[in-house]
Amino acid sequence: MAYPFHDIETKWQQHWEEHQTFRTPDEVPEDKDEFYVLDMFPYPSGAGLHVGHPEGYTATDIVARYKRKQGFNVLHPMGWDAFGLPAEQYALKTNTHPRETTEKNIAQFKRQLKRLGFSYDWQREINTTDPDYYKWTQWIFLQLYERGLAYQSEEPVWWCEELGTVLANEEVIDGKSERGGYPCERVPMRQWVLKITEYADRLLEGLEALDWPESTKQMQRNWIGRSEGANVYFDLAGIDDSLEVYTTRPDTLFGATYMVLAPEHELLDEITTDAHRAEVEAYVDEALRKSERKRQQQGEKTGVFTGGYAMNPVNGEEIPIWVADYVLASYGTGAVMAVPAHDERDYAFARKYDLPVREVVEGGEIEEEAYVGDGPHVRSANEDVSLNGLHNEAAKEAITEWLEAEGTGEHTVNYQLQDWLFSRQRYWGEPFPIVFTEDGEDKPVPEDELPVTLPDIDVFEPSGTPEGPLATIEDWVHTTDPETGAPATRETNTMPQWAGSCWYYLRFLDPDNDERLVDPEKEEYWMPVDLYVGGSEHAVLHLLYARFWHKVLYDAGVVSTKEPFQTLVHQGMILGETEYTAYRDEEGNVVSAENVADDTDLTPVQVDEEDVTKDGDVFVLADRPAVQVDARSHKMSKSRGNVINPDDVVDEYGADTLRLYEMFMGPLEQDKPWSTDDMEGVHRFLNRIWRLVVDTDSGGLAVSDEEPDRDQLRVLHRTIKKVTEDIEARDFNTAIAAMMEFVNAANKWDTMPRKIAEPFVLLLSPFAPHLSEELWARFGHDETLAYEDWPAYDEALIRREVVEMPVQVDGTVRATIEVEADADEDDVLATAKAADNVARYLDGTDIQREIYVPGQIVNLVTG
RNA sequence: GCCCGAGUGGCGGAAUUGGCAGACGCGACGGAUUCAAAAUCCGUUGUCCGCAAGGACGUGAGGGUUCAAGUCCCUCCUCGGGCACCA
Question: Which of A92, A260, A564, A739 is the least crowded, having the fewest Cβ atoms under 10 Å away?
Fold first, then answer.
């Protein structure tokens, strides 16, 4: 019989709600240390909670409950990132107002989260679509605007026809929208843009001190893409203008043998000579017609000669100017100097079009391939400056210095990061606090008129123009100039979904403040976030944008820390149960999986686990060992039909089982396949605990009042030590394994002493809070699990003690080993074995040394 | 191509960071209980040899450092993730 988890969980969830058990006081306490543990708040989708949500949420909940028990003042809030496309697309289909859909979804999410018993302070719940919330999102926009960090631009931007909106660079992958995978194209449009590039260096430097996954830091570094080099000016032959190029290798300037312009380059037309005009125009035409996606594809580089020449400032040499579409207008200056000897692309291009290759750095086989490594420079001198003999860094420095002195170049830093495109042509987002006067000038809405509320609307169709659906609401659009009272119109674009999530962690500190975004005293007390848990899909989107806004708010004096999230952890993905797949061809014959290419039209057939066996490294059919079978776990998806619904799990096994299982599956950061069998093992563990404490026949307690013996105490205290250390290290899976080990040991005892059971239940409480509360109450305690009762392990029981033990080795060597007081016989034997090992090696020599073996110290004396 | 991360039993995964490889869980096999089943409990479970005591081999492959290597170093292979004409 399973323990009555359903009654227990309902009972304690109600209890916690009624008693506001997890309320964090509004006021900042005088003398209590804080701990801010935060989940990435969810987008409340119509599909409801999936099993991936509780994974991160359980991890943070364990930490929150643990820290509370350690006496910290803990902030553990939850809210809703509720603006965004899906609600609007749903509105389009069903004509339901996004607000209605959103409210319904939030109610569903909240109900599901409460069923899992997370210790959130629901009094601090926030919702990005609430006008009291987005008032401050708009306020932050005004801070950006006033600092010149928000500006309008007419640049080509990513436009997605299907979504009816433009998207940020970060939201477009391979020319397709990140959400939905719809095709996107580059179209020039007037847009609001945030100057994130101005913070590029600070965003880069700030990463150093953060306790974040190295891969995420690396992704942000790559995204920012800082490079150092020089801009160099090449005078143009016969034209009174110069061509500016960016290079990271100014040291190879003497090796430049031609130049290349992007097809969009503004000087191209002027440079092109009449003899080459037709050819160049044809090439440019074709290049511009190619989609961005096609141009991004690497392949054979093509280009044509313009007929123009530029003068290399270091040696006065005239070199030909080409145009080629592998040069991007959006990076650097849209023009490059080509040094074929020392750049792979230039090398390939030069070989193809028979352009000269001039080696200026020694070390490679220049006849064979470009040499990009370091080496002494050669053939690199003019009357004033010589790089000959210098190596990379020194050469760069010398030539840059010379260029600067000559006024023909300068040291330059370049970034791949581009400014953040901030407008969307959608309805369901924050309106901009901006109006336009009749002559087109933009003006901010004064602070005291915030929020600019989102009007109601019945038609959600995107207009298909740079105006959003808001443009159709005449009496909202038409307003007055806040300064002059003259007629004015409102900005009809809305902010992207990222806006609300850029700063929500600050609003949790002071959610009801209508005077300021956050009270400075509270901000200073709580920030930064001590532990932030969420998916790695936000590595460069949310996590970069939020850092940017945070730094702007820092400059504005709103926050006191330079970085918002001190420690970051990405929970891994929970995959579906492992599937075994065989394939059939058109005739129905089974095909071995090793012969299956990705694009075949074979029919996959699911095979039961029992019918599969392992042969060497691969799985095969048990009855037909020649047929190889794919064994993989896939991402959960409706179409695959492998989705696990957390509600079903809670119904059948209880919330504590789900929580515990998701933590037991493996390391938090790792992707892990779901296994219902494994989960049942965790459920069994909880049942055992129940029976260890509760006499299931009488309903009374199964614990005794006998004093625990030394062995029992040792087992308990080792468990306390291990679990505590594991929680600190966020190794929740091994913490649970340690508790399982404890229960295995306790099952063999004649009685379970109360003095052992009570601390164990406390130890369990962050993991399985409902069961723990119930057992605690059954022990006869009036209060719910008291924080000060968290068990401390007794050092005395696991302290090191020195025991002398001589080890005889080959009659010549004698070793003394020191072991822990509680070391068992195996430990001693292992130690002796290690000592013996070393002794053998030292045999006959006269050395004294110390070596370390598991938990013990060996003092070895030879002679 | 470049940058991260990872390869350990039939499966998910442990291993105090260089010290008894396989904790804990699942599965499997055997047993107890039961009229029977479920549930529960007790064993066994890396591979090979051996009746046994015991022995040999074992952490993707190959080399190396060390008394001692899953862990450190070099070369390579495979799988995930990210970036990708960035001058």
Answer: A92
A187 has pLDDT over 90: no
Confidence of residue A329 (pLDDT cuts 50, 70, 90): confident
Residue A660 CA to nucleotide B17 C1', Å?
Answer: 27
ipTM of the shown complex: 0.94
Which nucleotide across the nucleic acid strands is nearest to A736, CA versus C1'?
A: B24
Checking each nucleotide's C1' against the CA of A302, the nearest proves to be B85
- Strand B nucleotides below 7 A of a protein CB? 3-5, 10-16, 19-20, 23-27, 39-42, 67-68, 80-87
pLDDT at A432 (0 to 100): 96
* CA max distance for chain A: 106
3-state secondary structure of A555: helix
Which position has the higher pLDDT, A814 or A812?
A814
Which of the nucleotides lies closest to A331 (Cα–C1')? B86
Q: Which residue is nearest to the C1' sugar atom of B27, using CA?
A: A677
Beta bridge partners of A173: A176
**Segments in A779-850 forming alpha helices (H):** 795-798, 825-842
Q: Which residue is nearest to nucleotide B20 (CA to C1')?
A: A830
Nucleotide nearest to A215 (CA to C1'): B4
pTM score, two decimals? 0.91
Residue A584, pLDDT > 90, answer no
- Residue A839's nearest nucleotide, by CA–C1', is B67
CA A3 to C1' B45 (Å) is: 30
d(CA A495, CA A311): 47
Q: What pLDDT, on the 0 to 100 scale, is given for residue A763?
A: 94
Spatial distance from the CA of A805 to the C1' of B69 (Å):
27
Q: What is the pLDDT of residues A685-729, one digit of tens each?
A: 999 999 999 988 788 888 999 899 888 888 899 899 999 999 999
Amino acid at A204: L
Confidence of residue A853 (pLDDT cuts 50, 70, 90): very low
In angstroms, how far is B1 C1' from A300 CA?
Answer: 15
pLDDT (mean) for A8-33: 93
pLDDT digits (tens, 9 = 90+) for A503-514: 999 999 999 999
At residue A587's C-alpha, the angle toward residues A581 and A590, to 5°, is 30
Cis peptide before A451 (omega within 30 of 0): yes
What does the pLDDT look like over A413-440, one tens digit per residue? Answer: 999 998 998 988 888 999 999 999 988 8
What Å value separates CA A212 and C1' B65?
33
Closest CA relative to residue A611, chosen from A591, A567, A581, A646: A581
Nearest-CA residue relative to C1' of B2: A222
Q: How far is the CA of A694 from the C1' of B18 (A)?
A: 46
Shortest-distance nucleotide from A250 CA to C1': B87
DSSP per-residue letters across A288-343: HHS-HHHHHS-----EEEEEEEEE-TTT--EEEEEEETTS-TTSTTSEEEE-GGG-
State residue A412 phi and psi, 5-degree precision: -140, 145
CA of A747, C1' of B29: distance in angstroms = 23
**C-alpha angle A151-A153-A158 in degrees, rounded to nearest 5:** 120
CA of A215 to C1' of B5 (A): 8
* pLDDT for the residue A804: 55
pLDDT at A861: 44
Separation in Å: B15 C1' and A616 CA: 25
Residue A766, C-beta contacts closer than 8 angstroms, at least 6 positions apart? A61, A62, A63, A65, A66, A69, A727
Predicted local distance difference test score (pLDDT) of residue A840: 65
Identify, with chain letter, the residue nearest to nucleotide B42 (CA–C1'). A748
Q: Within chain A, how many helices (H) and strands (E) appear?
A: 26, 39
pLDDT tens per residue across span A45-56: 888 999 999 999
- The CB-side HSE value for A521 (13 A sphere, CA atoms) comes to 6
Cβ neighbors of A712 (< 8 A, separation 6 or more) are A746, A749, A753, A756
